[in-house]
Amino acid sequence: RKNSRPTFTGEQIFALERTFESVKYLTASERTSLAGQLNMSESQIKVWFQNRRTKWRKRHAADMATAK
């Protein structure tokens, strides 16, 4: 059976987005620290950052295409 998808609080998302603005790739220790602060698992943090980078790349590519 598949696990249900977690819903993150606004506070967690805000902190994740704020971190993402300054650092696109977390080190293992940064991930551990952030997971502890936000009461999330390290794998949730890792997957959130993977998904957010994908979203960022798509937006960035679209912006570059429009700029041409």
From TrEMBL:
DNA-binding region, residue intervals? 3-60
Instruction: Supply the source organism for this entry.
Output: Helobdella robusta
Return the PROSITE patterns for the record: HOMEOBOX_1 (PS00027), HOMEOBOX_2 (PS50071)
What name is this protein filed under?
Homeobox domain-containing protein
The gene from which this protein is expressed is 20197242
Q: Which residues form the Homeobox domain?
A: 1-59
Q: Where in the cell is it found?
A: Nucleus
Which Gene Ontology terms of cellular component type are present? nucleus
Q: Which GO terms describe its molecular function?
A: DNA binding; DNA-binding transcription factor activity, RNA polymerase II-specific
Instruction: Read off the CDD domains from this record.
Output: homeodomain
User: PANTHER family of this UniProt entry?
Assistant: HGTX, ISOFORM C (PTHR24340:SF35), HOMEOBOX PROTEIN NKX (PTHR24340)
Q: Which InterPro entries match?
A: HD, HD_metazoa, Homeobox_CS, Homeobox_NK-like, Homeodomain-like_sf
Which Pfam families does the record match to this protein?
Answer: Homeodomain
Coiled-coil segments: none
Keyword field: DNA-binding, Homeobox, Nucleus
From the record, give the transmembrane residue ranges: none
